């Protein structure tokens, strides 16, 4: 007599499903959710002259600091999915104020390149931005960059 063994199902999300959950973390400004979707040894690199962030815990702290420092939203653009990655074009809507206090919203074109490991975790995220647009926004706000 044979005994049926339970079948283990590894529930790795599809890339579009992972992207959707990941984006919720950014839209709701939830550093814990964002970090939970990254691999323990993940790399997060914003290509603006800053150093890459290494590891899930460091990423969670980085996101918390980012959300405390800047008020920004998203305008969705194109998404392209590959076998183990996605590319996401979006526009950052950054709430800033002129030196006199008049608020304005800066628009900065962005591009994310995200690599996912076999476990369905974000292994690396590279963020590229339109530097001229960001510099112009910071100059208008009187922020040295």
TrEMBL record:
InterPro entries the UniProt entry points to: NTF2-like_dom_sf, SnoaL-like
Pfam families in the record: SnoaL_2
Residues of the SnoaL-like domain: 21-124
Name of the featured protein: Nuclear transport factor 2 family protein
Organism per entry: Nannocystis pusilla
């Amino acid at each position: 007599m044979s005994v049926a063994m339970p079948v283990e199902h590894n529930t790795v999300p599809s890339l579009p499903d992972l992207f959707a959950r990941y984006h919720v973390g950014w839209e709701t400004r939830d550093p814990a959710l964002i970090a939970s979707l990254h691999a323990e040894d993940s790399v997060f690199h914003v290509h603006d002259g800053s150093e890459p962030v290494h590891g899930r815990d460091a990423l969670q702290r980085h996101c918390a600091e980012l959300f405390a420092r800047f008020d920004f939203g998203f305008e969705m653009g194109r998404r392209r999915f590959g076998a183990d990655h996605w590319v996401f074009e979006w526009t950052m809507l950054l709430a800033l104020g002129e030196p006199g206090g008049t608020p304005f919203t800066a628009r900065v074109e962005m591009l994310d390149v995200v690599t996912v490991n076999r476990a369905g975790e974000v292994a690396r995220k590279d963020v590229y931005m339109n530097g001229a647009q960001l510099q112009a926004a910071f100059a208008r706000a009187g922020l040295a960059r």
